[in-house]
From TrEMBL:
InterPro entries: Glyas_Bleomycin-R_OHBP_Dase, Glyas_Fos-R_dOase_dom, VOC_core. It holds the Pfam family Glyoxalase. This is VOC family protein. It comes from the Bacteria. Gene3D superfamilies: 2,3-Dihydroxybiphenyl 1,2-Dioxygenase, domain 1 (3.10.180.10).
Amino acid sequence: MTVEALVPMLRCADIGTMVRFYCQTLGFRIDGGDEALGWVSLARDDVSIMLSRLSEHEGDQRPHFTGSLYFRVDDVDTRWLLLCERATVCYPIEDFPYGMREFGIYDPEGYLLQFGQPIRS
């Protein structure tokens, strides 16, 4: 068995706001689904994310997720300059002792998005 991809499915109270944020702020495009149907597939470069309405049959009351989505990018400094004033910042850009330069922001539903790049020696 070969795993071909891992595509996170983020549940949203306001799927329209999330679609606009991921497309207009982060540069994703819609590549499937429909907001009216309650889910949308988004893509950018080789990354895919799906957004869905809260799941009533599973009893969702609000979005919840205990992890984060970590995006490895090729120019973290430029990404920081583009996003630092367009999103709620969790932590600003910083060099970390484990060899990554990264920052974290929140999307409109409160999911933590981290962007990082290996520090060049």
